[in-house]
Amino acid sequence: MTVRIGMIGTGFARRVQLPGLRLVPGIQVTGIASGRRANADAVARDFGIANVFDDGVELARSGVADLIIVSSTPDTHLRFGLAALEAGRHLLCEKPTTLSAPEALRLREASSARPNQVAWMDHELRYEPNRKKVRELITSGAIGEVRHIEMALRPYLRGDGRPQAINAPWNWWYDAGKGGGLLGAVGSHLIDLCRFWTASEPESVAGVVETFTERRNDDAGVSHPVTADEFASWTMRMGSGAVASLTLSSVAHHGGGHWCQITGAEGSLVLTGEHTLHIGKRGVELEDITQPDDLWEKTTPNNMWARSFVRLMRDLVPVLGGAKPSGTPATMEDGWRIQRIMDAVRAGVTARLD
Hints:
With 354 residues, the protein is an alpha/beta fold. It is 33% helix and 26% strand.
């Protein structure tokens, strides 16, 4: 069985997902769609894709694909995700799920009504070896009962050490109406990891988002208002009893990228950067237990997003043939629950979640 894949979007899909799919057996990319036809044509030429569309709904309804990967801007996820499900296709949707929890609920309900169709969220960090190891260690009691989780991202760095967002030209990332901003792009992953690690849901959340930049020029020098969040910080009380504190910034001038510390009653786990993991018992120095990665330097780009996407897809393809997932994939249910939390953070109020 060869799974035919239709890809909607030519940004993240072109940089990360399409190169990664070359490492996934049993698939063929048979269609590409973009609102900018020239972009779809260019990707089709570069990756040898036979069918090109200028609308994702058309691709979903065309019959050229068994699985639709929605990798377009978040404001299109609901429309394209519903089109895929209604056309009888399987669905892998990028995060954030949609623009709001009510929209995400529509996708959850549509997928629930079609139990024979697979509908996953691309929360690929569940498949990253060290983040997966964290779940195993917590479950086994290696650090005792988890008391608190601290996570931070400050900031994305360019090759020359400068933050990417500070000098980047205006695009959809800076437009809240398109679903831009750091909370949706990265915060959704971190919320999911807290749920994944503690096997529990947040009972309450309180947070704040902020935009510091008033306007930003695009490549042509035209100025646009920046409306998406550039900073987000929030606290969640998990059903497990743990408290999670998370902070993201795309405007910090210095920072080490991803950092996380999980503190348990008997010890700590520390994730540094994309792939380094340490463990330490109470009163004992941290020990490096970083997990080996057989995909290291095999993906383009060589980062945890690309490597984790390959692993997720290697799990998904057999599931479409009737197998059980070997990992713990995120579903539309997860996407809706995460969207509710992000809505509360953006509202800037303390919210109880049931």
